[in-house]
Structures are given as structure tokens and as C-alpha cells.
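Worked example 2:
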Amino acid sequence: MRDTQDLDRSAFAVADGAELTYTVASRYPLSVHLNTMNQVDRARTILPNDVFGDMVVETTYSGYRSFDGVQFPSRIVQTQGGHPTLDLTVTAVQANPFVDITVPDAVRNPPPPAALTATSQKVADGIFWITGGSHHSLAVDLGDHVAVVEGPQNEARSELVIAETKKVIPNKPIRFIVNTHLHFDHSGGLRTFVDEGATVVTHAANQAFYEKAWAAPRTLGPDRLSKSSKKAAFQGVTDRSELRGTNNRVMELHVLRGNPHNEQTLVAWLPAEKILFQSDMINPPAQGAQVPPPTPTISNFYDNLVRLKIEPDQIVGGHGARIATRADLNAVAGKAGTN
């Protein structure tokens, strides 16, 4: 993170040592605390994050001891947004060992980033799979309004999803954004839909987290919602819920009980069309590719569908290159030959 081209530093004494403060790249604040032994015991910075806003990243270093004459912390702990992300116990230290690392060509000469795009595929009348990147969404016409399943990644992605939704289902407001689960790659764009006027439909256990995270300042990366200051509206799901359209279309939302990927995962089921939307459960393998043994996540997904008596003809995903079939589901769940 250190930028020698642009690094401001100041230092001041504190009761238990000293605090060094930096501004990196004229933007990112960094403070480094030294204990009375002049050992670094804490480093703290703030980085922009699509969910947390100005996210505090703090790393603590403790248990300094001599490793063959080198003073080094035996424990390193990091939190991001107040949540633990790293807990490292150091058992050995070598000073300046020779390491021969070959940098892959793709890293040495990375290709330019691909342009962001959003395209759509009609799944049924008034139902469109919005793709064009690594994360996908589903737009569903509910008569006088639209529901979108999944506001992934970030504002840039969700703006593209919103634009494509308005293109394929014109002149109707997006009233609901369904969030399949909390993982940030599936929730980083939710705030864009809130600014659009949509109610966030998510597992009831997620609401308090989003309300707290979204209340944080966003000085490093302002987004549409921070500029408009609109208040988020939520609709919580605990086990089962429905979104009903004025066109008599019903979207059922079900919790996948006990799913190891995330215990609050929702799937969206359109019973009349036999279309199921899911994220991170099944990505259908390429045609003719060998199918690996089922994972606990896929087995749980399959068992939940049996419990719920959901028998989809099309399984639309938040990832993947194609829409899966029931045969694909049976294959990856180790149930090949099952009707």
C-alpha cells in the first residue's frame, strides 16, 4: 500500500508508545502504532468497499519473540469492517531466504480489462437472464412493476443490469431486488437498486447487517445512494415468501435450510414457468465434460428442492455460461437417471 511517490507522514507520542500517521496516494489514511518496545503492534487504514463504505482494515501484531535472533510477532490478526478475516500463528521465521519465483506471463503482462457489458436472454415471456459478466441476474415482469433477482458485485454492474432490464421490460419500475445471500459479490450492487427505488428482499437475518453497514460514511467511494440519501426498505424472508404480480405471476422465495455455502441462502421459484433461479449452488458443466462428485452444497441444494417439491425445467444461475436443466441437476447431484 505504500506509495513512495506520494506519502505524507506525521508522528506523535501516545501513553503506551507512538503513533505514526500517513496519507497514501493523497487519499488513504494509515496509522501505525508502536508499543514501548518500538514494535509495531497495530496498523489501521480505511479502504472503500461496496458494502461497508469507508471500511476500517486493522491488523494487530502480538507475541513478539526471537526467531533465531529475529524479533517477530507470533500472532497476526486482521479485521475488515470489524469482522475477522485473518488469524495467523507464526511458528518459524527465516531472514532473507532465497526465493525463486517465476512470474506468470499473464501476471507480468496482464490483458486489458474487458469492457463491462450486460446482455439478456429470454427465458420465458417477461423473464430475462441478464448476463454479460461473471455474475448474472434475473429480471421478471410482474405486471405493473419488475422484480430483479441479484444485485451483484458493485454499482457499475448493477447500473448495467438496471439499464438492460429497462430495455427488455420497458416503462415499468423496478420495485423489488431479491438478494440470494450476503456474500459481497452477490450484495455489492444492492444499494444501486435501493437508489432506483427498489425494496430489498433478503433473509430476515441480513437486514440488521445491511442497515448498519450502509449507515457508514462513504467519503472514499461515494455512490448513488450516498448522494441521494434515500432510506432502504427491506422485506425479510425467514422460510418462505412470495412476490405476486398484477399479471397473476407468482415468484416464490425459499430458504435452503442448512446449506453449507450460506445458511441464509434464498432461491427464487416461478412455479407456473418451472424456472428456478439460484446462485452458487450449481454451475452446469460444459456439454460432454466429466461431472465431478457432488459437493455438500449441491447435495443440500438437491435435498431442499426435493423437500420443497420444486421440479424445475430450467435452472438459471447467478454464474455459469448456460441455463441448467433438470438432467444437469441430477448429474451434478449424483442422481443421474432420476426423473
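The domain at 119-332 is CATH 3.60.15.10 (Metallo-beta-lactamase; Chain A). Helices lie at 105-108, 155-168, 190-196, 207-214, 224-228, 296-308, 326-332.
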